[in-house]
Amino acid sequence: MPPNGRKGRKLSLEELEHVYRVVGIIKRRSSL
Question: Using alpha carbons only, how large is the chain's radius of gyration in Å?
């Protein structure tokens, strides 16, 4: 987990991509 100090920073594209990927996996699992 990233430190809380990064909260104020904008997410990089790589971080956003990772978040979307994780969310997609979670949604897929919950829909099953």
Answer: 12
